[in-house]
Write a structure and sequence with these properties.
The complex is a heterodimer.
Chain A lengths: L3 E10 L2 E11 L4 E5 L6 H9 L6 E6 L2 E2 L10 E4 L11 H11 L4 H15 L14 H14 L4 E5 L7 H18 L3 E5 L2 H7 L2 E6 L2 E6 L1 H6 L4 H6 L6 E8 L6 E4 L7 E4 L7 H4 L5 E6 L4 E3 L11 E6 L2 E4 L4 E7 L2 E7 L10 E6 L5 E4 L8
Parallel strand pairs in A: 3-8, 3-9, 6-7, 7-8
Antiparallel strand pairs in A: 1-2, 1-4, 4-5, 9-10, 11-12, 11-14, 12-13, 14-21, 15-20, 16-20, 17-18, 18-19
Chain B lengths: L2 H4 L2 H46 L15 H7 L2 H32 L6 H9 L6 H12 L5 H7 L16 H26 L3 H9 L4 H12 L1 H17 L2 H6 L11 H11 L3 H32 L1
Helix pairs in contact in B: 2-14, 3-14, 4-8, 4-11, 5-8, 6-8, 8-11, 9-10, 11-14, 13-14
The chains are: A alpha+beta, B mainly alpha.
Keywords (chain A): ATP-binding, Nucleotide-binding, Transport
GO molecular function (chain A): ABC-type transporter activity; ATP binding; ATP hydrolysis activity
Organism (chain A): Halomonas heilongjiangensis
Chain lengths: 373, 309
């Protein structure tokens, strides 16, 4: 039985369809992340799960029970809001115990729950303060504490880290992950930050224009994207897309990349990754997707042993980040980003030999933008 | 630019700059001076004059024979003053209380994202645009037993219906409350509505998820956030209550007899129509004391919280 199941949910605001036939299911204890650019419907979907926004059609089930037409209070969920939404007139203690009080939990139990949560989140020393006296990170903890005080079936997190500064965000991200591992709770988490999505999720739903484009583990979404949008959205720096022509012939398929003023670049497509689809595309335009880390700098002494395809290009920009170096180089009609090791001593304007790992490259249809291989 | 030519300049430039700076610093004070002088004279000067008069035996015309606090002592034994003061307490408490409750309720109902909210808001706010004289006259007609509500209900066939508060000495003060509430509660509603709109939507959503019912959300979560609004509303309403003069004059004329007198009408009657300037001044000073008693703690707490903030 799924902890949360969404069946064919649609939501209209006037004439505008915000959610278009969304379906998904997660198991108890799973961490689901809804990710997508702003306006993709992820927050609307979360509000629909919470019951704050009625759906136009479809069904929502929590722990096997249909809750589509139940009030938020009856759904047994807790939510952490982007703005924290702490009650300004109550102390931290009051904020955490309010939900229990409304559910008529006896005072002694409420006190115990507050102590437990405060210990867990290390906010015991803040219990008598008002939200206005807390820092952003502390408010964030209190907001989480309020959700954790009850033990609901599903926790909803609505962009909880987006109001924190960069360093705190990374710390809290780790903390949320630890908390999830420790408590084994079912969490639905909305974010527009693909790094949060990759690091936290058991399961990612990439959304766009009210649809779920891909639902899968972080690894699947990152390495096996269903279309150009998902491939480009996940990962930073994002995937390079290169226009190419698919060629057939003996010895497998090849990708011909037309380069102005230079000889065309021809990359062989690995035999192990041929699909029946490719045969019908010979001679057509396709889009080759290469992540920056699919490039590596070539050590010329090892040329004979190494696998992959060699190419040579003149570096236009080199951006050292400390851990590695991002290079911009012309390839085909445009430029691509390559990520190479920090020891690679190369300056802008120099020519560099790079190896491309075609075993991990992906191929898209240039018109439908769907994945080919 | 070379250094040699610019060496001699700084002194003169500085002088020019500083005279311009002086002008700039003094200009606001110059512009404000007339109004400061006028208000010093006409507000604080006359306050002082009233205080001096309250210490004299002035009757028809001001005299300057000081008699100490004799006028205040006379006031304390004056039956009509006590009626006026009691009326003020009754009127003030009911007026402020009912206005707050009605205003808050209207604001909460209007805040439920209803249609035509703008039109309704304007409708409720309009009475505030009227003068208290107009309000008084309208309600005088409505409450007149021979013309208004009583006559109308009787004409429907309920012959025994009586609503004669306007001419009933025990009830006349409540007619003031009705008219004043009608006029001011829309304004309180506007204050509350502004406060409600300033509250983060997600706080209400969070309370819904926490399982609170709508009345509880408002009572426990939203209204406590509006404490500053309640404070300002109480301040504004109570000083309207203490100052109330035109409404009484237009609606009841202080009557029947002096049953619906308020301190302001008492003061006016004694100072200007009954040739008791000394006694009138003393009552005016007590009213000022009343206003200050409300205002000073308010200003104190406001200024203190601002320093903290």
């Amino acid at each position: 039985m799924s902890a949360l199941e969404i069946r064919n949910v649609c939501k209209d605001f006037g004439n505008e369809q915000v959610l278009k036939d969304v379906s998904l299911a997660i198991d108890s204890g799973e961490f689901l992340i809804l990710v997508g650019p702003s306006g993709c419907g992820k927050s609307t979907l979360m509000n629909a799960i919470a019951g704050l926004e009625p759906v136009t059609s479809g069904e929502i089930l929590i722990a096997g029970e249909a809750v589509t037409w139940k009030t938020p209070a009856e759904r047994d969920i807790a939510m952490v809001f982007q703005s924290y939404a702490l009650y300004p007139s109550m102390t931290v203690r009051g904020n955490i115990s309010f939900g229990l009080e409304m559910r008529k939990v006896p005072r002694a139990e409420r006190e115990a729950a507050v102590e437990r949560v405060a210990d867990l989140l290390q906010i015991s020393h803040l219990l008598e303060r008002k939200p206005a006296q807390l820092s952003g990170g502390q408010r964030q903890r209190v907001a989480m504490g309020r959700a954790l005080a009850r033990e609901p079936k599903v926790y909803l997190f609505d962009e909880p880290l987006s109001n924190l500064d960069a360093k705190l965000r990374v710390d809290m991200r780790t903390e949320i992950k630890k908390l999830h591992q420790r408590l084994g709770t079912t969490i639905v988490y909305v974010t527009h930050d693909q790094i949060e999505a990759m690091t936290l999720a058991d399961c990612i739903a990439v959304m766009r224009d009210g649809r779920i484009l891909q639902l899968g583990t972080p690894d699947e979404v990152y390495n096996d994207p269903v279309d150009i949008f998902v491939a480009g959205f996940m990962g930073s720096p994002s995937m390079n897309f290169i226009a190419a022509t698919l060629e057939g012939g003996e010895g497998g398929y090849r990708l011909r990349i037309v380069t102005p003023d230079e000889e065309d670049l021809v990359l062989p497509w690995p035999v192990s990754r041929e699909t029946p689809d490719l045969a019908r595309r010979v001679g057509q335009q396709v889009v080759l997707g290469l992540r920056p880390e699919h490039f590596s700098e070539e050590d010329l002494r090892l040329t004979d042993q190494a696998e992959g395809t060699l190419l040579e290009a003149r570096v236009t920009v080199a951006e050292p980040t400390g851990a590695d170096i991002l290079l911009r180089l012309p390839l085909g009609a445009g430029e691509v980003t390559a990520r190479v090791g920090p020891k690679c001593r190369v300056a802008a304007g120099e020519r560099l030999a790079l190896r491309v790992d075609m075993g991990r490259a992906v191929l898209f249809d240039s018109e439908t933008e769907r994945r080919l291989a | 630019m070379t250094h040699s030519t610019s060496v001699a300049r700084p002194a003169r430039a500085a002088a020019r700059r500083s005279s311009a700076g002086h002008l700039q610093a003094w200009l606001p004070r110059l512009v404000l001076a007339p109004s400061v002088a006028v208000s010093l004279f006409f507000v604080y000067g006359f306050m002082l004059w009233t205080f001096i008069l309250s210490l004299t035996n002035s009757r028809m015309l001001p005299s300057y024979d000081l008699v100490g606090f004799a006028q205040y002592a006379r006031l304390m034994t004056n039956d009509r003053w006590w009626v006026a003061s009691t009326n003020l307490v009754v009127f003030g408490a009911l007026f402020v209380g009912i206005c707050l409750v009605v205003g808050a309720l209207l604001a909460i109902l209007l805040d439920q994202r209803i249609r035509q909210e703008g039109a309704l808001r304007t409708l409720y706010l309009y009475p505030m645009a009227l003068s208290f004289i107009v309000t008084g006259v309208v309600w005088k007609w409505l409450l007149n037993p021979g013309l208004g509500i009583q006559a109308m209900v009787r004409s429907w066939g309920f012959e025994g219906f009586t609503f004669d508060w306007l001419v009933n000495p025990d009830m006349a003060v409540y007619t003031l409350v009705i008219a004043a509430v009608w006029q001011a509660s829309g304004f309180v509603m506007a204050l509350f509505l502004a406060g409600l709109r300033g509250i983060d939507d997600s706080i209400i959503k969070a309370a819904q998820l926490d399982g609170a019912s709508l009345p509880r959300i408002y009572w426990r979560v939203v209204l406590p956030c509006l404490r500053p609004v309640v404070f300002s509303a109480v301040m504004i309403l109570s000083h309207i209550a203490i100052k109330s003069f035109d409404l009484v004059v237009a609606l009841t004329g202080g009557g029947p007899g002096y049953a619906s007198d308020l301190p302001a009408t008492f003061m006016y009657a004694h100072a200007f129509t009954r040739a008791q300037i000394g006694l009138g001044s003393a009552s005016a000073m007590l009213m000022l004391g009343g206003v200050l008693a409300i205002l000073i703690p308010y200003l104190y707490s406001e200024l203190r919280s601002r320093q903290h903030g």
